[in-house]
Amino acid sequence: MTGRVEGKIAMVIGAGSVGEGYGNGKAAAVLYAREGARVFAVDIDGDAVAETRRIIDEEGGVCATHVGDATKADQVAAMANACMAEYGRIDILHNNCGGSIPGGPVELSEEDWNFQIDFNLKTVFLACKYVLPVMEAQGGGAIVNISSIASRTNIGRQLCAYQASKAGLVQFSNAVAFQYADKGVRSNCVVPGLMHTPLVEARVAGQAYGGDVAKAIADRDAMCPTGRMGDAWDVAYAALYLASDEARYVTGAEIVVDGGVTLKSF
Ligand SMILES: NC(=O)c1ccc[n+]([C@@H]2O[C@H](COP(=O)([O-])OP(=O)(O)OC[C@H]3O[C@@H](n4cnc5c(N)ncnc54)[C@H](O)[C@@H]3O)[C@@H](O)[C@H]2O)c1
After folding, report:
1. Residue whose CA is closest, atom 15 of ligand 1?
2. Could you tell me if the CB of 223 is within 6 A of ligand 1?
3. What is the largest CA-CA distance in the chain?
């Protein structure tokens, strides 16, 4: 432990993982704890968030858990209240919820469009709605939002709702950064590329590769100039920097973590 977020309270929304191993939210929660934060891990899936807590407990860190749906206003208000009841402050808000359903405007149902806007964008709006007043009253805080390179480029699949919502998330993050800059609250985005998280096995392989996991991994690796995908720790370390006081003058920024994928044109 080097204590890069020592003494801070980190609320991570979407702190579990859809499968075995480390997703972006789970890795961030574990890394914040390793670096001295007390973690408030929130997820819609009780088992997934319990597993995150088990790991943090085992490593000697501090973690409390809460089960709730980040797309529902009353449940997000309850998350913020529960974190305050547990720790009395919220220094880091890490918004990890998100995901994609493939399709262009013609193929995508209205329901699937709405779901993705809610999942990728409304979750962050609601979290900010209930956490910003806490941070303002404390005199500061750091918000880390997980966007995607789909916000700025085409990654080879039709993902119009995902692309739109992740791009919207960046500008939402910037709007918060600007409004709260003089209140000590920073708001930034991590912009991951093609990462090998359990999401690849759980969803991407089924959505785009007919369930062929090996092909999904090989294709995604081949799309990266490095020859391989990144992983959840690459995203978590960028988040850690943005959440820490090392980034005290950084707000309204995007850190692209993609091994150079966005440097090439598809
Ligand atoms: N893996 C990649 O290649 C990649 C690339 C770019 C961006 N991202 C972004 O990273 C984030 C997800 O990464 P991950 O690896 O942690 O995914 P994940 O799906 O493994 O974990 C997300 C967690 O969020 C929880 N969750 C789902 N809906 C929820 C809700 N309504 N309320 C509360 N919790 C909910 C899930 O139960 C799960 O535990 C997303 O924002 C995604 O868009 C991933």
Report:
1. 23
2. no
3. 50
